[in-house]
Design goal:
Blueprint: H1 3-9, E1 12-13, H2 14-24, E2 29-33, H3 39-46, E3 52-55, H4 59-73, E4 77-81, H5 85-88, H6 91-100, E5 104-110, H7 126-130, E6 136-139, H8 146-158, E7 164-170, H9 171-174, E8 177-178, H10 195-207, E9 211-215, H11 217-221, H12 225-235, E10 239-242, E11 256-260, H13 267-273, E12 277-281, E13 299-304, E14 318-321, H14 324-334, H15 344-361, H16 370-380, E15 386-389, H17 394-401, E16 410-411, H18 422-432, E17 438-443, H19 444-449, H20 453-459, E18 464-470, H21 475-483, H22 498-504, E19 508-511, H23 515-527, E20 531-537, H24 543-557
Parallel strand pairs: 2-3, 2-4, 4-5, 5-7, 6-7, 9-10, 9-12, 10-11, 12-13, 13-14, 15-16, 15-17, 17-18, 18-20, 19-20
Antiparallel strand pairs: 1-8
Helix pairs in contact: 2-3, 2-8, 4-6, 4-18, 10-14, 12-14, 13-15, 16-17, 16-23
């Protein structure tokens, strides 16, 4: 009997083992578009009682859903595609997960690697392609190694900073037989920060005159909200967030200074400039920093699970490295709040921002004015409601003006900042939390990049609202174009009738006709089951004036 024949008859089929390994890891869903090269895997999956296949209409949508599963749960989201074009369609989602800190495992098929059947048809070096945008990528060359490779892919996907991993499963390997068994997950805790580094940080804070906390993406990923709130309550030190740090502490807190949504010159940036000691918590180098360091500037304390990546504008003086929540707890226990701290001026900047925003938010013009839209959405959404933003200029309006009450209730992407992720991320949110209200907020440009997933949302029986801000153009780039003094060129287009488009998928389509009608529609869609789409015309004519000129002038005058 040949060696191959012996391999076929003994042990478990490799694709069955792969599914068992995923089950051992606690996998609940696999999102994707399978192909011919995944059929062994698909057959094995069909017999799983623990994992549900969610068929999407594009691999990118599957990847965004898997990444968002990871973002919400901290557990690895899993997605599947075929070789070649299926795998290349995962590239944007892989970058979204890796830059955004979301644990995800991509599984792609491949032609047999031991015997070629069809020359080089559809064959790409997918492992090399995935290398720069994942934390781990591997081609399975032996079924015996499946358990260790799956365990490693999960471990690295979930370890701080989380990101995307990739395994290629060739057809002939999937069809092998093996005696290997799944490897159980290890018990692991993040190390605690060194008490001496905590002492240094506390000394610097106690010696400061106007300390401030900056809450970034890393603090959002690792559930530090409770400890941070206790720290703020004990010390009275004010705080601000980056876009990816929104919601870590309830933004209704009196010591909240705002969200750094613009690059510079906003009220919140003026508040930071008043500080002589900045505690930067969970800083992620992927985000535009809300402050730039310079020689002779304020003391910067870096509190994170990883040491600081140094660049020309970020080179912190003191680093507190370890589990962030534990580090903040240690600092809270050690610190004696100083009677000489002053933060009144910082809070005045926040009050000025709120005063500037109020009349804008009350502007009930039609087409809808962005600040008004933000306030209407906030008023309609419950405390635990989730908004999922695609990418466009409205993201700045929402980051600045939408008050986040809880972590992961404002899903915006300030890392890869890709268009097309808004709808899939909202779909995943609605699947995970069927009892909560979910709204995708998309520009017409971003929505059309993955609009086909409306069919998936309807098929899954999800309850969600898709709010489209319609300006018939790539509005973010038009805004930048205007700001740079260039002629308005090359960024306008036509759109389908979005109401009919939604209805063609079996969803409910609505069109906003006035600001009063907007309020009615949002409430109706929130309270009526099913998939709803709202076509909302927006007036972006003042974006440049307000965001680039007025805010900077008003905050500077203070």
């Amino acid at each position: 009997m040949s060696e191959d024949a012996g391999k076929v008859s003994g042990g478990k089929k490799a694709s069955d083992l792969f599914i068992e390994c995923l089950e051992e890891e606690g996998c609940e869903y696999i999102f994707g578009v399978p192909g011919e090269e995944n059929l062994d895997f698909l057959d094995s999956l069909s017999r799983s009682t623990k994992i549900k296949l969610v068929l999407t209409r594009h691999e990118q949508g599957a990847g965004f859903m898997a990444a968002t599963y990871g973002r919400h749960t901290g557990k690895t989201g899993v997605c599947i595609a075929t070789l070649g074009p299926g795998a290349t369609n995962f590239v944007t989602a892989a970058a979204y997960a890796t830059l955004g800190g979301m644990p995800m495992l991509m599984i792609t098929g491949q032609k047999p690697i031991k015997k070629s059947k069809q020359g080089r048809f559809q064959i790409l070096d997918v492992v090399s392609m995935m290398g720069p945008i994942t934390k781990f990528t591997h081609q399975m060359a032996s079924s015996d190694n499946i358990p260790s490779r799956v365990r490693e892919a999960y471990r690295l996907a979930e370890e701080e900073k989380p990101g995307a991993t990739h395994i290629e499963l060739p057809e002939d390997i999937a069809d092998e037989h093996t005696d290997s068994r799944p490897i159980k997950r290890s018990q692991v805790r993040r190390p605690s920060a060194d008490p001496k580094s905590v002492r240094q940080a506390v000394n610097a804070l106690e010696a400061a005159k106007s300390p401030v906390l900056v809450i970034g993406a890393g603090a959002n990923r690792t559930m530090t909200g409770r400890m941070l709130l206790q720290f703020v309550e004990k010390t009275g030190i004010p705080f601000l967030t980056t876009q990816l740090g929104k919601g870590v502490i309830d933004e209704r807190h009196p010591k909240f200074l705002g969200c750094a949504a613009l690059s510079a010159g906003d009220f919140v940036h003026r508040a930071i400039e008043d500080s002589d000691c900045i505690v930067n918590i969970g800083h992620d180098v992927i985000e535009k920093p809300p402050f730039f360091m310079r020689d002779g500037g304020p003391t910067v304390i870096h509190v994170s699970s990883k040491t600081a990546e140094v660049d020309p504008v970020y080179f912190p003086h003191i680093e507190v490295i370890g589990d962030i929540a534990n580090a903040i707890w240690q600092m809270k226990e050690d610190i004696v709040p100083s009677g000489s701290w002053t933060c009144g001026k910082m809070l005045e900047y926040r009050a000025a921002e709120v005063a500037h925003t109020a009349p804008l938010a009350a502007d009930a013009r039609f087409p809808i004015f962005p600040p008004h839209l933000v306030s209407e959405v906030r008023a309609a959404m419950p405390d635990d409601g989730i908004i999922c933003l695609d990418n466009g200029v409205y993201k700045i309006w929402f980051a600045r003006g939408y008050t986040a009450y809880r972590p992961n209730t404002v899903l915006l992407d300030n890392a890869l900042a890709t268009m097309g992720a808004g709808l899939p991320s909202a779909m995943m949110s609605a699947m995970l939390y069927p009892e909560r209200k979910v709204m995708a907020i998309c520009g017409d440009g971003g929505f059309m990049m993955n609009s086909q997933e409306m069919e998936t949302a309807v098929r899954l029986g999800l309850n969600l609202t898709v709010l489209i801000l319609n300006d018939s153009s790539y509005g973010m780039i038009r805004w930048k174009q205007a700001n740079m003094g260039f002629v308005d060129f090359g960024l306008t287009y036509g759109n389908p009738d979005f109401v009919k488009y939604a209805e063609s998928y079996g969803a409910h389509g609505h069109r906003v006709e006035s600001s009063a009608h907007l309020k009615e529609l949002i409430a109706h869609c929130r309270d009526t089951p099913g998939v709803h789409l709202i076509d909302c015309p927006v007036d972006y004519s003042e974006n440049d004036q307000i965001l680039n000129k007025d805010i900077k002038a008003l905050s500077k005058a203070l």
